[in-house]
């Protein structure tokens, strides 16, 4: 006889009890108010491009999803960030894309 497997049904919704599957909060910053949701590595099933470092966030890596709190853009304004990139967004300047032979300073 095989051992019993106790598994909860996955519905795609946060649980009704405390500490739901999606913990989100509102953060205030110099660039405005943002709704921020932490995504666990087990829940990250797709690859995304981080706007902070322009590197790929592979599936299975924990990261942050953030969008403006004003709610104007909806799902089109959501961005997936590496956690350190999200924390450092105020300290970083815009990334300048240089051509292959441009001088580096």
Task: From the structure above, extract its key features.
single chain; ATP/GTP-binding protein; mainly beta; 26% strand; 105 residues; 1 helix
Characterization of this structure:
By secondary structure, the protein is mainly beta. The protein has a domain at 24-87. Helix content is 5%, strand content 26%. It has one helix and six strands. It has one helix at 83-87, and strands spanning 24-29, 32-39, 48-49, 56-57, 63-68, 79-81. The strands form two sheets. It has a four-stranded antiparallel sheet with strand order 1-2-5-6. The chain has a two-stranded antiparallel ribbon with strand order 3-4. The N and C termini lie far apart (69 Å).
Q: Give the averaged pLDDT, no decimals.
A: 77
End-to-end Cα distance, whole Å, is 69 Å
State the secondary-structure class: mainly beta
Order of helices and strands: EEEEEEH
Q: Report the C-alpha radius of gyration, rounded.
A: 18 Å
Shape: globular
What strand order characterises the main sheet? 1-2-5-6
- Strand % is 25-35%
Helix content: under 10%
Region (Disordered): 1-31
Biased composition (Basic residues): 1-10
Protein name: ATP/GTP-binding protein
Organism: Actinomadura fibrosa
